[in-house]
Design a protein that fits this description.
The chain is mostly helical. 38% of the residues lie in helices and 7% in strands. The chain has one domain. α2 packs across α6 and α5 packs across α6. The longest helix has 15 residues. The chain is globular and about 40 Å long. Bound molecules: heme C.
């Protein structure tokens, strides 16, 4: 799994925080949605309703969407939260992770504080934090 440095993640999130002020936030903002709701709406089509891959949209993709319940296992038993956050956000731009779309626009809603593995605190879209927390809870 490609590792993204914390510095790069912080820069990407900081850039997004700056941009968020310029877009029409009302259309996309719904701060009541839980991680599982956000997952069902945005991710299940490819990663499957249970996050184990093989969603309905899989057949049209060049690359099989990952089993998201085995992220920790693939990472030696630790859940790489910063890395997952960066991947979902789409740091690196479209196409950087194959067929996985970026979800930068999910960042239009409310911000919460995210503490990186090395203790940096950074304002991060609540929806991204919810999704990453949901995925962490699914690890087996
Ligand atoms: C259009 C289909 C599609 C959608 C929608 C999608 N993904 Fe993915 N995702 C992929 C594919 C394909 C990969 C594998 C790409 C790779 O490994 O480079 C992937 C990889 C990932 C990874 C990396 C897994 C790993 O172990 O490295 C994460 C995390 C992830 N997706 C989370 C999500 C989340 C969360 C959502 C919803 C917000 C989502 N994906 C929506 C197709 C999709």
């Amino acid at each position: 799994m490609k590792t993204i440095t914390t510095e790069a993640l912080v820069l990407a999130l900081a850039a997004m925080a700056g941009l968020a002020g310029c877009v029409d936030e009302t259309a996309r903002r719904d701060d009541s949605k839980s991680g599982s709701m956000l997952f069902a709406e945005n991710c299940a089509a490819c990663h499957g309703a249970n996050a184990r891959g093989h969603g309905d949209a899989e057949s049209g993709l060049e690359q099989a969407p990952a089993d998201l319940t085995l992220i920790s296992e693939r990472n030696g038993g630790t859940f790489p939260a910063d890395d997952v956050l960066a991947k979902v956000h789409g740091y690196g731009g479209p196409g950087h992770f194959g067929d996985m779309p970026d979800f930068e626009d999910i960042g239009a809603g409310k911000k919460v504080m995210w503490e990186t593995q090395n203790g940096q605190k950074i304002a991060t879209p609540r929806a991204l934090v919810e999704i990453v927390g949901y995925l962490e809870g699914l690890q087996r």
